[in-house]
């Protein structure tokens, strides 16, 4: 039975007056008190909205199959003293990797003008095809691993890009035409973190060149999706042309800070932060996001290479526990296509340093995922 209005009136009269006037007195504080209160409210609303978008995105992807994979770069395997073919064979046959992110360095493919060498990429495609694995092929000037941009010595990319862009696009055309009908090809990644100016030995970041390259790829092969990657921790959403079929994001956790602290730093971003980035991307562009680089290798200090760094030092940025956390972190973002960064390094730790801990951890993760 509904209570009469007098009932609520009597209850209000019995409420202590200091509780009724509390909000009013709280707002009558000093100007700084009000400013701090407004900031707290705004921050709470922002973080609440970000978290809500993240949870929505994670839920929206719950039924999408997980596709774990690895980046694989023969040049990097060689720099570690490994045989590239043996390394990729182990990834295929021992870890059962079914998705590879492969590079096509201009310096490797066209070492002299007009003379192409596809021997390396051919055996990579053949090995993946034999294992029924799929390939995301990186094309363009900027591709993964230092110095990021990989022009051949006969090209001067320090000059205006319109002087060497026709040569770059001719190389891209040759690569795409060679592999676009290969059954192992699943997608392309165009360039790599194209607008990231603070890292790598690159000189041109013009949007018009990226738009031209995107149009070229689509004109040559409209049957495979094109991914464009962003850097890892930047807020916001990419704007302007081109709008690819998917966006990529790279995620790093523990790195050596050579600029300021000269020590290892840990990025504080939780997995839901990247789910938020992917959610905003989905809302604003209708496009999904993948993880094209999930840190899974050591970050050496003081500009050292991996072979110059002791195992104990390597363990400060990655060990088996951190590697397992890296796999779980990537899955917790809600993104379903995940390329782990550093598979060659796992093999190096096992066969050169006689430490199979990372290899065994990765093997367990791929067995569970597959």
What does this protein structure show overall?
The protein is of the alpha/beta class and 370 residues long. The chain has two domains: 15-60; 67-369, TIM Barrel, CATH 3.20.20.80. It is 46% helix and 15% strand. The chain has 15 helices and ten strands. Strand 3 (134-139), helix 9 (161-179) and strand 4 form a beta-alpha-beta unit. The longest helix is centred in the first third of the chain and has 30 residues, at 31-60. The radius of gyration is 25 Å and the shape is globular.
Integer count of domains = 2
Please name the CATH architecture of the largest domain: Alpha-Beta Barrel
Low-pLDDT regions: none
Report helical residue fraction. 40-55%
How many β-strand runs?
10
Q: How would you name the CATH homologous superfamily of the largest domain?
A: Glycosidases
Over all CA atoms, what is the radius of gyration? 25 Å
Question: What would you say about this model in short?
Answer:
The protein is an alpha/beta fold and 370 residues long. 46% of the residues lie in helices and 15% in strands.
């Amino acid at each position: 039975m509904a209570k009469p209005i007098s009932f609520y009136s009597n209850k209000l009269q019995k409420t202590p007056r200091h509780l009724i006037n509390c909000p009013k007195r709280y707002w009558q504080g000093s100007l700084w008190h009000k400013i701090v209160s407004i900031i707290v409210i705004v921050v709470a609303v922002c973080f609440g909205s970000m978290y809500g978008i993240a949870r929505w995105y994670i839920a929206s992807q719950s039924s999408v199959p997980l596709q774990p994979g690895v980046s694989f770069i023969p040049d990097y395997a060689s720099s570690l003293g490994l045989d590239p073919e043996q390394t990729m064979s182990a990834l295929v046959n021992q870890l059962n990797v079914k998705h590879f992110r492969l590079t096509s360095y201009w310096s490797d493919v066209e070492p002299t003008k007009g003379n192409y060498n596809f021997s390396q990429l051919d055996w990579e495609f053949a090995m993946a095809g034999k294992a029924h694995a799929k390939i995301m092929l990186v094309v363009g000037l900027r591709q993964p691993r230092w110095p990021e941009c990989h022009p051949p010595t006969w090209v001067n990319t320090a000059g205006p890009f319109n002087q060497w862009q026709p040569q770059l696009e001719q190389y891209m055309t040759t690569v795409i035409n060679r592999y676009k009908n290969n059954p192992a090809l699943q997608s392309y990644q165009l360039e790599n973190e194209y607008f990231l100016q603070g890292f790598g030995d690159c000189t041109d970041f013009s949007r018009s060149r990226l738009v031209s390259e995107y149009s070229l790829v689509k004109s040559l092969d409209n049957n495979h999706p094109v991914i464009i990657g962003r850097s890892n921790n930047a807020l916001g959403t990419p704007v302007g042309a081109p709008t690819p079929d998917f966006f990529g994001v790279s995620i790093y956790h523990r790195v050596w800070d050579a600029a300021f602290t000269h020590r290892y730093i840990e990025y504080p971003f939780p997995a839901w932060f990247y789910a938020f980035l992917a959610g905003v991307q989905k809302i604003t562009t209708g496009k999904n996001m993948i993880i094209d680089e999930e840190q899974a290798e050591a970050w050496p200090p003081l500009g050292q290479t991996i072979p110059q760094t002791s195992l104990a030092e390597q363990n400060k940025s990655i060990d088996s526990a951190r590697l397992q956390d890296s796999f779980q972190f990537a899955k917790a973002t809600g993104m379903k296509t995940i390329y782990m960064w550093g598979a060659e390094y796992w093999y190096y730790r096992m066969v050169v340093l006689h430490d199979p801990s990372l290899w065994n951890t990765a093997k367990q993760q791929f067995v569970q995922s597959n």
